[in-house]
């Protein structure tokens, strides 16, 4: 019986990269809706490999039901929609792609931050409304980049890339990350500080932390109150890092001049969501990772992970490499391998 690889319909149509899987292994490729636990459980009854996006709810209940599946592949960098601990406990490896879109996401964050600081979003809206004086007034409040202190929350691959791009433009870059590399910070001229110190010092904050129990809601009303007046907040990481109700209030109060969000806690947003109503909030629809080079690289690395899994090999990047030591794990590899985020 040929292997079956089920792709979430959220990932779009299959193309030439994915067809390599069928050509090289004879596997059947299927695209299905995987929006609910029930859909995932149903698909898992037929799938040797499941390929997922960022929102499919792979809960402990789902993991227990995936009795046929030998590999989960997350097409992207985050795995917070997957109960990795449950998967590891069952011997089910979770592969992901941590490096395909580092440049694109950091580019997007820097572009949003600089455009927000120049008040370009308000200026564009004013000109479209026929109010050029209002555009001038908006840009007239902009600070010089050379005067800015920018805080980078999360100092992994993407946070470091953002800091590298910002450092030549601004007065000072500070970063907060309990696991941040002091050597990388020194090389980039970045000062590692505590999170509250970062918020108190920063004119603009860009978020690049993973979503964990410790980071959920870290951008709270209390931390927003620490920011320099007229601050900019950029989020290209995970929506749940931000207390969105508190952010809306901070924008309305003028404490935050612009919040530029590529991600939100609920995607897509419901009509009438407060985030959609505030002119000081800019939304880019979870597009930061997209780009000519990153899109192809992402798909190629997913294909490589699936081919490895179908051949009984461990993919290069696993969310928890210790799963390979589990007696129920169907893949062979180095249990001390890569699990970095």
From TrEMBL:
Identify one Pfam family in the record: 2-Hacid_dh
Q: Give the keywords, sorted.
A: NAD, Oxidoreductase
* Enzyme nomenclature, EC number: 1.1.1.95
Which named protein is this? Answer: D-3-phosphoglycerate dehydrogenase
Single GO MF descriptor:
transcription corepressor activity
D-isomer specific 2-hydroxyacid dehydrogenase catalytic domain spans which residues?
Answer: 14-317
InterPro entries cross-referenced by the UniProt entry: CtBP, D-2-hydroxyacid_DH, D-isomer_2_OHA_DH_cat_dom, D-isomer_DH_CS, D-isomer_DH_NAD-bd, NAD(P)-bd_dom_sf
D-isomer specific 2-hydroxyacid dehydrogenase NAD-binding domain mapped to chain residues: 110-288
Q: Does the keyword Oxidoreductase apply?
A: yes
User: From which domain of life does this come?
Assistant: Bacteria
The keyword Transferase is annotated on this UniProt entry: no
Homology family = Belongs to the D-isomer specific 2-hydroxyacid dehydrogenase family.
